[in-house]
Amino acid sequence: MQRTREEMEKDLYLTRRRTGHFRSSFTAFQQWLGYRERLELLQKLEDLKPSPSLEDLRDVEHLYPPIARSQSNPVPPVNPIHRAFKKADLSLRSPKPVVHTPLLSRLRATLDQQSAEIDARIRPRRPSLPESLPAQDEAEVDELLRKKGVISKCVREQVGDHDLVKLRPGQWLNDEIINFYGQMLLCRADEGKENRDAGLLDIHYFSTFFWTKLKDMGYEKGRLAKWTKKFDLFSKDIILIPVNHNNSHWTCAAINFRKKRIESYDSMNMDRTSVYKHLRAYLDAEHRNKKKQPFDFEGWVDWNLEDTPQQENGYDCGVFTCQFLESLSRGEESFAFTQENMPYLRRRMIWEIGHTRLRVDS
C-alpha cells in the first residue's frame, strides 16, 4: 500500500527529531519542506535560463582550479523528501557502537574529560544567547514598534515603521532592514579602525542591489566599477554581500581576502555554485579594471562551513543572513546562534535599529 505524502512527511519529521536535525513543530517542518521544494524548483528554472551577463562568465575556467571546485556543493536531487529519507536511512543503518569493558570505558571517560578541559582552555566556549533583552530594552522595543513614520537613519539608509514590522515573528525581511543593518556594520568598522584589538575587521558591505546587478547584468553592463571608485576593494579584510535568490530567499556571501576564500552561508543549505561563479567573475573583472591585470586565484577556495546554522521555517532567512554578516564582520569562524535564537534576535535587531547601535551578546 502506497503511503500518503503526509505519512512520509511525518516519518521524516520523527526521524529528523530523533537525530537532532530538527527541533521545531511538525507544522513548521511541513512549512520548511514546502519552502525548500519551492527554492529548489526556482533554482532549477533559474539554471535553465541563459544569463544576461553570460558574456562575462564564458571565459572564466582559469578562475576555477580543481582544488577550489572540489569544495562546492553538488546540485541537489529533485525530490527533497526522498533525499532526506536516504540520509536518515544511512544514519539509522550506521554501525552500532562497540560495547566496551568497564575498564576501557573508564579510561575513555578520563581521556574525554582531559580532552574537553584542554579544548576549553584553547577554545573557550562562548556563552549562549539570552532568551530576551533586559526589561527596559524590551519595553523600548515595544515602543519602537508603536512608532509611525521614520524610525531611524544611518548615513544614507533609513527604516520606517512599515519596514520595522518585518522584524515581528513570521515576517520576511526586506531590503531596507538588511541594508540598514549592513550600514551599521560599516559604521562600527569605521569607528573601530584605530582599535583592531576589539576584533573588528576592515570590511566593506555591498548593498542588496549589488548581487542583483552582478547576476542580471554583469560587471560591465551593471557599471559595478563605479561601486568601488572611492576605496581599494583589495585592501579590505573581507567584503560582505547579502544575496537575494529569485526574490524568495536571503543568503550571505563574502570575499575573504585574509583567508583567500569565496564564502557562502545559506540557512537552507542550497546549491552555491552560482554564488561562487559570479563572485569569482566579479573579483577578476574588478582586478582587471583597477589593477590592469587578471586576479591571481592561486590558493583561493570556495568555502562552505559544514555546520552553518539552519532555519526550520520559511521566513527567517533574512535574520540568519544579518547575523552571518555581523559575525563575519568580527572575524568569527563559526556562529553562536540557532533557530531557537531567532525570536530573541528579531527583538534585538529592532532595538539595534532604533538606537543605531549594534550590541554583541555572544
From TrEMBL:
UniProt GO cellular component terms: nucleus
Protein source organism: Phlebiopsis gigantea (strain 11061_1 CR5-6)
Recorded family membership: Belongs to the peptidase C48 family.
GO aspect biological process, one term: regulation of macromolecule metabolic process
InterPro entries: Papain-like_cys_pep_sf, Peptidase_C48_C
UniProt keyword list: Hydrolase, Protease, Thiol protease
Entry protein name: Ubiquitin-like protease family profile domain-containing protein
Residue span, Ubiquitin-like protease family profile domain: 157-328
Taxonomy, superkingdom: Eukaryota
PANTHER family with a match to the protein in the record: GH15225P-RELATED, SENTRIN/SUMO-SPECIFIC PROTEASE
Keyword Transport: no
A GO MF term: deSUMOylase activity
UniProt cross-references to Pfam families, sorted A to Z: Peptidase_C48
The keyword Hydrolase appears for this protein: yes
